[in-house]
Amino acid sequence: MTDAIEIWPGRPYPLGAAYDGGGTNFSLFSEVAEKVELCLYDDGGNEERVVLDEIDASCWHGYLPSVAPGQRYGYRVHGPWAPEAGQRCNPAKLLLDPYAKAIEGQVVWAPQRARRVDDRRPDARRVHDRGDRRRGCRGRLRCCLCVSRRTA
Predict the structure, then answer these.
(1) How far apart are CA 79 and CA 110, in angstroms?
(2) What is the pTM for the complete model shown?
(3) Tens digit of each residue's pLDDT (9 = 90 or more) over 49-67
(4) CATH of 16-144, one of 2.60.120.260, 3.40.718.10, 2.60.40.10, 3.30.420.270
């Protein structure tokens, strides 16, 4: 992925990734995000980021005419880190699309990294600290764009 990816404004709805036969509309809801990056992956696992800078009704969206089914993707969300207020934006973590039709990859369980969100031990805080720039999952889960059948 070396060429610049063309992006058009797109639509805020439907949420998720929607292929229309000519390209794909991506839309993600976030009331607190300051910036949203769509991360696209090639077959070699190389990441290319595209900023979704269109915002309507707290939906960050864009249309990519070059993206077709089979594309692997995820999101990186920049914004506040305030767990006590339920805000956990961390662009170091790849987020799965909550509306994805398929997920690729396998979770590699690492019990030493597992913590409860409300864990108050000093060593547990570092896992949830904004300064934690480690990748969230060694299994590297990614969304996979699929074509869904529409019912009349």
Answers:
(1) 27
(2) 0.81
(3) 999 999 999 999 999 999 9
(4) 2.60.40.10
